Amino acid sequence: MRSEVKNIERRIDQFLERIINADSPTLIKTYEAKVTELEYEKASLSGKLAETTDEPLDFENTFQTAFHFIGNPHRMWVSGDIGDKRLVLKLTFDGQLPYRRNVGFQTAALALPFKVLRGFNDPKSGMVVGGGYSANCSDKLIEAIQRSSKLFDSVMVAV
């Protein structure tokens, strides 16, 4: 990524030289737009580069941070540390917050740990009562699957 940033800086310098030597206002505007685009790209890459580290991650520290977060994400959010707040956002939501013009922010998709944990709060979920293997239940399931398969085949033949 560092080489990409250097390459973008070199291209920006080339366009600035062209702007200095250009006489046409249209050409100057085009070069300025390209410089702006390259500046945005450079800022994006620089941000990604700042987030990455060359140091290997310590498993114990990473594990403790993840469980500390899952245990009480609100405590990390109100801690006042901007790094903790960014971590909470990254670990809570799956990707960027969706935004629609004229409507605003939309409901965000939760990250996998919260999707899994949400299943535990569902009153419909729970352990199977009685335990053990029921051949009768298994046979009924197989029959239902076979009926569905035959129905699907007949519909496909009719189409």
Which characteristics define this entry?
159 residues, mainly alpha, 2 domains, two-stranded antiparallel ribbon, 7 helices, 2 strands, 69% helix, elongated
Question: What order do the helices and strands come in, and which of them pair?
Answer:
Blueprint: H1 2-21, H2 25-51, H3 59-71, H4 73-77, H5 82-92, E1 99-100, E2 104-105, H6 112-120, H7 135-158
Helix pairs in contact: 1-2
In short:
This protein is mostly helical and 159 residues long. It has helices at residues 2-21, 25-51, 59-71, 73-77, 82-92, 112-120, 135-158, and strands spanning 99-100, 104-105.
Biggest β-sheet description: 2 strands, antiparallel
* Strand coverage percent: under 5%
Strand order of the largest sheet: 1-2
Series of H and E elements? HHHHHEEHH
The coarse silhouette is: elongated
Number of strands: 2
Mean pLDDT: 75
Would you mind describing this structure in some detail?
The longest helix is centred in the first third of the chain and has 27 residues. A two-stranded antiparallel sheet has the order 1-2. It starts with a helix and ends with a helix. Helix 1 packs antiparallel against helix 2. The mean pLDDT is 75. It has two domains: 50 residues; 62 residues, no CATH class. The chain has seven helices and two strands, in the order αααααββαα. Strand 1 and strand 2 form a beta hairpin. Helices cover 69% and strands 3% of the residues. The protein has 159 residues and is mostly helical.
